Amino acid sequence: MLNRRNFFKTTGALALGSLLLPSCGNALTQTETAAENTGDSNVSKQVLPVGLQLYTVRELMDQDVRGTLQKIAAIGYKDLESAAGKTGHYYGMKPKEFATLAESMGMKLRSSHVLPGTQLPTEAPLPPEFLTLTNGLQQLVDMAAESGQNYLTCAYMFPSEHKTLDQYRRMAELFNRAGEACKKAGLGFAYHNHDFEFETLEGQRPYDLLLAETDKGLVGMELDLYWATKSGNDPVALFEKYPGRFPMWHVKDMDNTDKKFFTEVGNGTIDFKRIFDKAELAGMKYYFVEQDQTPGDPLASITTSYNNLVKVLS
Predict the structure, then answer these.
(1) Which pLDDT tens digit goes with each residue over 26-64?
(2) Residue 89: Cβ within 10 Å count
(3) Which CATH architecture has domain 4-14+47-158+175-195+215-294?
């Protein structure tokens, strides 16, 4: 499996992808007017559009930003979550310039993925000018505010960053600081999980520690439904245990094989209808289709995911 760690190793420091490297009642349906939704009102009364994490089309974005966005918009996606590519956090554009380009096509930038920045150089030899939460937090916040996006999101912890519970505690402190900086700029901050956060470490599940030691007023969780499910956890049970802590989701499916690999939304084993029925309990405001790897043309995969998801939610 090409996970985010291997992605960095195989593509080099500049090919940063998403890692920056992975009817619900009538509450959640796809409409044109939903693109104007700010996410501030009660989720049960919202009409939320389908979003896309651009990591899925990372190579296409590196080749042709405008053309790729046009194709994404033509499929029907309305919300976007960016991931740094070979040319930087906003694909070689100024934050506002990129957001304006997306808006001209009827889409809205909602979030962008960033890294903690405390990994070993051998895990991700990032160039010195590359901004992270520990090397340019305020600049990242300022750029996010300039773009008009809603969230700044930590995408991943490298293996060297989560070997002990003390490291998780330090991450929680970092996330609280990032959340405070984001709040001052009118933004939200969130953390995106994989599966390792659910593995017992020193007798405790680190994901619970992160939720306990981060300020719920400053730090939300972007729950990756695939990784949570693959780790043996029920997203709905997480919503019930931590109501309101999950303002964003990654919507990706898991195939029905022993490998439990990525597949298009609706082609796998995850019951998205059941999960979306609990959107209000979760506190969900935005959700993004993501498929870390696709069997062929990623545009074909995101088209399938879009069409299947709209059927699930209608």
Answers:
(1) 334 433 333 333 344 334 334 579 999 999 999 999 999
(2) 25
(3) Alpha-Beta Barrel (3.20)
